[in-house]
Amino acid sequence: MARRVDLGALVEHAREGDPRAVGRLITIVEDGAPQLRELMAALSGATGPAHVIGLTGSPGVGKSTTTSALVRAFRSVGRRVGVLAVDPSSPFSGGALLGDRIRMQEHATDPDVFIRSMASRGHLGGLASATPQAVRVLEAARCDPVLVETVGVGQSEVEVAGEADTTVVLLAPGMGDGIQAAKAGILEIGDVFVVNKADRDGADQTARELRHMISLGMSGQPGAWRPPVLKVVASRGDGVEALAGALDEHRAWLASSGAGVERRRQRARAEIEGIALAALQARFGGVGRDGALDELAADVAEGRTDAFTAADRIVASVAG
After folding, report:
1. CATH code of the domain occupying 47-256
2. Nearest Cα to 32, choosing from 122, 115, 124, 128?
3. Which of 104, 124, 299, 316 is most exposed by smallest CB count within 10 Å?
4. Within the chain, which residue ranges are assigned CATH 3.40.50.300?
5. For the sheet containing 166-171, what is the strand order?
6. How many CB atoms sit inside 10 A of residue 201's CB?
7. pLDDT, tens digit (0-9, with 9 covering 90-100), for 189-214
């Protein structure tokens, strides 16, 4: 029998900044271990609120380099920083490929920086399904801010807006990212836009196009946040201090406008909904074991009933 984990001790060690304790708690989250519910109950009301910053953008735009540069900027003013770098899943082990973590090795020996690579495990939208609970663990470890870097899957990568207080959209000149952002709806989710690799030709044009597109979408409502467009060369650290300042400005706006409270409520709602749906899917997984699903499938295929009626019977059996 596996030895039961002492959650209370782990949580206390995590609050003290013990990286091993934080890592073990996030492993419980990722694995969906039996103690996950107990862990979330223990963290309820005792975490955060940290500033959760999501970083998204197409592959190759420099998300990991920008994340690492931001960690450096926040550490320079004494903040403890948490990073959740969502990587593609290995087709062999199902684990994260760890590319993001490799690119952040300069922070590996800093006890006040915790970096965790998480596997997307097929979850769409650029995030791992365990991200909300992992953020809570880092909040309990008194990380502030918590940076969430998405996997970089392209046009479907908008889910991060529902998980973050502030969403940073990164683009690069010469990649057609301005057009892609408009197509993907990313303009609607961005709170701060960054043209990375701004030492390349076309950076000024990309920034101008972005500002124009953002101005077209502005509501004009008094007090509304106007997303800034910043030019950065993250590999050299150019413009990173201004980016960190813009993130702090957005955090202050969230607090003064009340938008921050609303975003956290929406995030909690989505988390509850996701957990409930996962529980229903788990219950549904046992429906076909008694042959009932096969019988209904045969009835539909042979015209004795329709798919909606058959689905209603499945739902009724699960609810019962």
Report:
1. 3.40.50.300
2. 128
3. 316
4. 47-256
5. 113-119, 81-87, 146-149, 52-56, 166-171, 192-195, 229-231
6. 8
7. 889 999 999 999 999 998 998 888 88
Return the bridge partners of 170, or none. 194
* Pick from 143, 166, 139, 146: nearest CA to 56: 166
Sequence letter at residue 74: F
Q: Are 137 and 14 in contact (CB under 8 A)?
A: yes
On the question of pLDDT at 1 being above 70, the answer is: no
The CB density around residue 80, as the number of other CB atoms within 10 Å, is 20
Pair 84, 160: CB distance under 8 Å = no
The predicted-structure confidence for 46-78, as pLDDT tens digits, reads as follows 666 899 999 988 888 899 999 999 999 999 999
Q: How far is CA 200 from CA 196, 203, 204, 258, in A?
A: 9, 6, 9, 39
Q: What is the pLDDT of residues 241-254, one digit of tens each?
A: 999 999 999 999 99
CA–CA distance, 165 with 253 (Å, rounded to integer): 11
